[in-house]
Amino acid sequence: MTANSAKQLAKLGQYLQKFCKTTDFNRVMAKAVPVACTKNTCTVELAIDTEHANTYGTLHGGLTASLVDTMTTMALVANDSPPGVSVELSVSYMRPAAVGSTLLIHSEIVKLGKSMAFLTSEFRDKESGKLIATGKHIKHL
Amino acid sequence: MTANSAKQLAKLGQYLQKFCKTTDFNRVMAKAVPVACTKNTCTVELAIDTEHANTYGTLHGGLTASLVDTMTTMALVANDSPPGVSVELSVSYMRPAAVGSTLLIHSEIVKLGKSMAFLTSEFRDKESGKLIATGKHIKHL
Amino acid sequence: MTANSAKQLAKLGQYLQKFCKTTDFNRVMAKAVPVACTKNTCTVELAIDTEHANTYGTLHGGLTASLVDTMTTMALVANDSPPGVSVELSVSYMRPAAVGSTLLIHSEIVKLGKSMAFLTSEFRDKESGKLIATGKHIKHL
Amino acid sequence: MTANSAKQLAKLGQYLQKFCKTTDFNRVMAKAVPVACTKNTCTVELAIDTEHANTYGTLHGGLTASLVDTMTTMALVANDSPPGVSVELSVSYMRPAAVGSTLLIHSEIVKLGKSMAFLTSEFRDKESGKLIATGKHIKHL
């Protein structure tokens, strides 16, 4: 890990810690654990519990979307960019992820322009590596 | 209100009541209040509180997406359709909605095919009628 | 029709006429015929011919997307707005539209902000009124 | 190149050749040149000419979308999958690509399920490697 990646990872950890104490909607991300940062990316993991699930006992699609929103924003702030304002967010749902499994969520700044940021997140099952969902997020800076 | 709309509205109310008692992620929709149902649509309102907000004190984009997911599914089940499985969801964010204001969320079954359902949600400020966000949701039945 | 709508319709007609003579990609919209304009909307129709079709003899999904792009831009320029630059475009495909049928394409400026425009198009079969496709288009102004 | 990749590349070439002779909308892809195939991917290049451009002399956003549609479908058929029917297509536009430059378009089958295919395309400037646009395409099989 480069010195810069370590600094970014620490910054990401501080943000995620704030989510643990908040009473606003960011609390739903409270259990995400920082794993790695590189230039323009950050990775967290999340052990899926009932609080993250739908009626079928799998990752709730609304939480998937919420994680696309927040984790791509974490990629921005860990890279010293302003967080910006959401313009468009979309999620493709490929496989269910059951309570008890762990997600790896890898987010990336695909393009950072003067006024627009193009961001993506990939959700994989930590054990099998299988793709659970992908998301994209466009923010106005 | 037709007899059928009244029946649908009652059904919607029962589902939303279940959200009040759940510990799964559907709990984030607990305070949505059923307002109206017609064939292929349902409308709820939500008074925005801190628990629904981001750091800026406005509706959290992740919750907007979660509401697109759940409220379009409510439109399906209130119309006696199976809930299906999410394939794709997207949200366009047009204006912030502050804590203290009330949202009107109008969801619609745009097309119900044999295997695919095309659904939309519109989020408006109850007082001004201004558009806050729009969402679309594609489910596989 | 108000005087202003008539002025907008004339402007739309002039743009569409330019498409008839161009050798750039806008030529694929050449046969779209202006039908109506109101504040923030414009409607055109298109008789589907082989040149608009895929291998199955129905409206090509790539042309649907191209029409979302161009016809929402026509809604902007007919309303004296700058055309802007595309940021995101999406299309939901609901039903095929056969060669020989006619499309009504209704485009709307849903929100025109200082820097972002949110636009939509709806494609209907002219005879049956059935929804063929919907599109959204986000432009940076 | 494996024997299988060579077989896929030949198949892709045959499809693209058909586009050269067609009078339907697939003609707009006629000048795409097959470059490589691997399991679940295919890559083509396209020298941007006036026929592909908008009024500004850069790649037309409608053609970008049309290429997402067709080139992801080429990835399917080159991999011996049925072409399916479009459900949803979206494009994120990151940079203009001028007439005279060459695009590398890399398309991938991200997930092939029993009833749904999730596909993506990436458009890069061949010389600089810079990202021009990304697209996703969901088809029902």
UniProtKB/TrEMBL annotation, chains A, B, C, D:
Mainly localized where? Answer: cytoplasm
Keyword tags? Acetylation, Cytoplasm, Cytoskeleton, Hydrolase, Lipid metabolism, Mitochondrion, Nucleus
Classification via SUPFAM superfamilies: Thioesterase/thiol ester dehydrase-isomerase
Report the record's Gene Ontology biological process terms. lipid metabolic process
Q: In this protein, which residues make up the domain named Thioesterase? A: 56-130
Q: Which Pfam families match?
A: 4HBT (PF03061)
On whether Hydrolase is a keyword of this UniProt record, the answer is yes
GO cellular-component terms in the record? cytosol; mitochondrion; nucleus; spindle
UniProt-listed Gene3D superfamilies: Hotdog Thioesterase
- Kindly state which reaction or reactions the protein catalyses: hexanoyl-CoA + H2O = hexanoate + CoA + H(+); decanoyl-CoA + H2O = decanoate + CoA + H(+); octanoyl-CoA + H2O = octanoate + CoA + H(+); a fatty acyl-CoA + H2O = a fatty acid + CoA + H(+)
Q: Give GO MF terms, alphabetically.
A: fatty acyl-CoA hydrolase activity
Q: Does the keyword Cytoplasm apply?
A: yes
Q: Where in the cell is it found?
A: Cytoplasm, Cytoskeleton, Spindle; Cytoplasm, Cytosol; Mitochondrion; Nucleus
- Tell me which family the UniProt entry assigns to this protein: Belongs to the thioesterase PaaI family.
Q: How does it assemble?
A: Homotetramer. Interacts with PCTP.
Protein function: Catalyzes the hydrolysis of acyl-CoAs into free fatty acids and coenzyme A (CoASH), regulating their respective intracellular levels. Has acyl-CoA thioesterase activity towards medium (C12) and long-chain (C18) fatty acyl-CoA substrates. Can also hydrolyze 3-hydroxyphenylacetyl-CoA and 3,4-dihydroxyphenylacetyl-CoA (in vitro). May play a role in controlling adaptive thermogenesis.
Can you say what this protein is called?
A: Acyl-coenzyme A thioesterase 13
Classification of source organism: Eukaryota, Metazoa, Spiralia, Lophotrochozoa, Platyhelminthes
